[in-house]
Amino acid sequence: MKIEEVKSTTKTQRIASHSHIKGLGLRDDGTALEVAAGLVGQENAREAAGVVVDLIKQKKMAGRALLMAGPPGTGKTALALAVSQELGPKVPFCPMIGSEVYSSEVKKTEILMENFRRAIGLRIKETKEVWEGEVTELRPEEKDDPHGSYNKVISSVYITLRTAKGSKQLKLDPIIYENIQKEKVSVGDVIYIEATSGNVKRVGRCDVYATEYDLEAEEYVPLPKGDVHKKKEIAQDVTLHDLDIANARPQGGHDFMAIMGQIMKPKKTEITDKLRQEINKVVSKYIDQGIAELVPGVLFIDEVHMLDIECFTFLNRALESPLAPIVILATNRGFCKIRGTDMGAPHGIPLDLLDRLLIIRTTPYPLTEIVQILAIRAQTEGISLSEEALSTLASTGVKTSLRYVVQLLTPANIMAQTQGRKEITKDDIEEISRLFYDAKTSAKILQEQSDKYIS
């Protein structure tokens, strides 16, 4: 008889460019650690970003803008993502690229306004009468179809909910059973049913079943305390853009012509200013009554030099509106023309907008920091490389760019594996460098062989 140990499997995730970023890596006093949370170096920039995070958390940064300026590959996008990690999932973070605004369907300013509204959250708090507990019984009652069909129809459903204090059996309407099916509720799940609307929300699987399997994608929650029938404060997080979309779509009928009309409509439609103003009035009213709380989030615009003069003028006005998020801009341009004009300006941004910005500067990484970044990336991607290979790769990074050498890690690993080795050596790095050119080498070859290319 052969007995084998059952090995638990681990979830494999796609490794992206900034998968290793977990935060800003700051001490309690706000000073930056040399290497922490996936970030290396850029201490001044990280400390400045830490101050911005504190301002955002204290809600004193709304309507202000920040510019991250520095050469390519100096960690501007990484810093912005670190800011989003520090803020947590409750604060909206809306990333976009400057070139996203150019569309044949919608105006540039409309796309900017949409992203502005996506970056402003609204936490709506309601006290609702609910039935909450772990489902111990779920039994639908069937009857003959009154319309004469051979099929059976659900007449009612019996559900038993259990809490730490006791249990109760409920007889529910068939419509509520449809909601239960939509939420994919089964025995052992913790749910709550709203008494007024009949909406059903599956909270998670009861933690009694937590040891049932070695690996599963369930979220386990404790057994609810108190009575089954109670009053519960429910907080719902939405963005202003969600409210815009919900009110912009007309609720058509269920007849054939109404359905066809919705299909034939263009995918993208502009939301009018009048509708947004009405939503703003309702939101302001809710905030005054204490029903809702405004959560200003972050709008991150990368490659901001791609915006034109119309977009910059719109940004100036939008930053002054009472409902404005924190705007973080990033660019790697020096002194260049403002798109759509013949005027030159620092970073390709008009001076009147630059006056409004707090500017954080990022600087190129020295050799020691490139070594540390490469070591972190190799660990994140599960790649093993020798000390000699690491120093060779870092030296190449100083001559070329950090992005180039980070991209060489995976091809070098594959080359080592094809030769039956688990560790990357110096020879692998040198071989892969000969196979793949960096931008500077490619530009040099173009200059030398310009007569052989069409220009």
Structure in words:
- There is one protein chain.
- The protein has 455 residues and is an alpha/beta fold.
- It starts with 34 loop residues before the first strand and ends in a 7-residue tail after the last helix.
- 35% of the residues lie in helices and 25% in strands.
- It is built from 14 helices and 19 strands.
- The protein has helices at 43-57, 76-87, 108-118, 174-182, 240-248, 256-264, 273-289, 309-319, 351-354, 367-380, 387-399, 402-418, 426-435, 439-448; strands at 35-36, 39-40, 65-69, 93-97, 120-144, 152-162, 167-172, 189-194, 200-206, 220-221, 229-239, 292-296, 298-302, 326-331, 335-337, 344-346, 357-361, 384-385, 423-424.
- The strands form 5 sheets. Strands 5, 6, 7, 8, 9, 10, 11 and 12 form an 8-stranded mixed beta sheet that branches. Strands 4-13-14-3-17 form a 5-stranded parallel beta sheet, sandwiched between helices. A two-stranded antiparallel ribbon has the order 1-2.
How is the biggest beta sheet arranged?
8 strands, mixed
Using DSSP, what is the number of strands? 19
Distance between the termini: 73 Å
Q: How would you classify the quaternary structure?
A: single chain
Model regions low in confidence, pLDDT < 50 over at least 5 residues = 1-13, 253-260
Helix content: 25-40%
Q: What's the Cα radius of gyration? A: 28 Å
Structural class: alpha/beta
Mean pLDDT: 81
User: Treating each run of at least 4 consecutive H or I residues as one helix, how many helices?
Assistant: 14
Q: Indicate the overall shape.
A: globular
Strand content: 15-25%
